[in-house]
Amino acid sequence: MASKSKRQNGVDRISELPDAVLCHMLSFLPTVYAMWTTVLSRRWNNLWTSLTNLGFDNKEFPTNHTMSPIQSFNRFMTAVEGAVSLHRSSDIQKFCLSISVKHFSVEDLSQINTLICSAIGHNVVEMNLSLWAEDHTEDHFELPQSLFMCTTLEKLTVFSSFNICAPPRGSLPSLKACYVPALENLTKLKLVLRDCYHWELLTELLMRSPKLKCLVLEHIHANVDNKYPEQSESRWIPPDFVPICLLTRLETIKIRGFKGNRDEMDAARYLLKNSDVLNQMAIYTGDLQCTKEELFEEFGKFPRGSKACKVLLS
Q1: CA 229 distance to own-chain centroid
Q2: Is the pTM of this model over 0.90?
Q3: Blockwise average pLDDT, block size 10, the chain, 314 residues
Q4: Which end of the chain has the lower number of beta carbons within 10 A, N or C?
């Protein structure tokens, strides 16, 4: 009996738990520490690769006191690259990368872009980037094109000491929240709005895209039975001041899936009134709540910031 009791006391009860439970436990650890659990036993071998949330912070990364800051940073980047490449789960729900160093080299920024692209390849839903250099310079950091074409990304947060640049074109079909610095290079943007929510995302992107020339809005009405009565309160809230792109750059607006509900009408009225150099607003209607004739008549009453602007309905 005593021998049996000793054997029971020697059993690794934690390792007997299901994978899902162990992964939940690992999710509370920094990803680098979760990776190191591989050495505990064969049971833990690469279990961390099933985590859906990956977070890396070079300030939390353990270093050898004999290493130089550059060596320490290179070791950190190698670990992160290995973690993302070994990630066996098809999807990454959340990817966080926080780096604070004295100086970023061109090679460092290229590595960071590679990491971003790798996370996108795993259908990332939320991405948080924090990039800070102690010797503050006027350097620019251009985010990769694939980030602005990602079909799964719902939330993007960027904090940086750099001037963050976006590629000239972007299509954000799933984005619901965006916290980024100015997108200086963005000239064409396609944004998908689901059931007329997330209007604040549109105003935020307009405020941060001073060179925007073409705006494409696509409305997807997932709830086909959802009616927007005219007396309901509009969810469109205009920005505190007119974005620079409307006053100086925006030439073309295309709105697809337009139903004519109050939110859409208020947003279209604002854009038409405040876009001083607009050449064309094209409205592609969906399941209209009124006739095209009534819609055309209503648009005819809207003030226009640009006398040269033509409104096309189809």
Answers
A1: 32
A2: no
A3: 49 75 82 79 77 88 78 88 78 92 87 92 94 73 89 92 82 86 86 74 91 91 51 76 96 93 92 97 87 89 94 91
A4: N
